[in-house]
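Researcher: Next entry: Replication protein A C-terminal domain-containing protein (Magallana gigas).
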Amino acid sequence: MWNQGGYQDQGQGGFSSPGGFGTPQGTQGDRKSRNRAQNVLPCTTAEILSATQNDDKFYSGEIELSQITIVGLIIAVKESPTRIDYEVDDMTGPPLEESVPEPERIAALRENTYVRVYGTVRSFGGKRNVTAFKMVPVMDMNEVTYHMLEVTHSHLALSKHAASGMSSGAPMNSSTMGDNIYNNQDSGMISGLNQVQNQVHSIIQSNVTEEGASIENVCKQLRGVPERSVREAIEFLSSEGHIYSTIDEDHYKATDS
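Model: Predicted structure:
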């Protein structure tokens, strides 16, 4: 969870690579004039692309964007001998490029997969990107909404501290950057279902209305996933007994909701 000290991690260097992923310490002057979220800050691609740059540091208002996390949909994947480049769209602005260097190779994720990315903000040739040290698929679509709430809450908390002249550099524990941070790579996943089927099931399961989730609504939440793929997933889930139709053949509820 986010608190006023940021996402927490007790490691001193955290993740490392040839490029270095440690959180820069900054000068005393920087700490007085800018507010830093220690280690991992929830943010959006729009924030990263519109952030002001001072040398190798990036700021959203008075908040430094050093190590960040975003949630979005992979719309393109490009592999090379030294890295994998992903274009991730979180619907807040133009897609942002995420790069995974060879020493930190992460199993390739496919297009039309929602992911949570952890990384550092960089700029090469005037182009912003994120060098990722961790990427995990989103299994519960509620995480997309939850992430946006985290972005709002964390920035309000840090802005409040900046206005009052307080530091937000609280010590950190391992509950954030380890595998315990959300555990969403395991939660909500049904064995035997593929990525799209799990995402469709999660959306239908989270709908609490009498009529259930409509196919149109599911497609809207899974932007980038072809409608045909959504319908095929719904047909499979229905035939396997995971969901059932309600008022018509376009509305479904989960059998375990």
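Model: Note for the record: Residues 28-164 form a domain with the OB fold (Dihydrolipoamide Acetyltransferase, E2P) fold (CATH 2.40.50.140).
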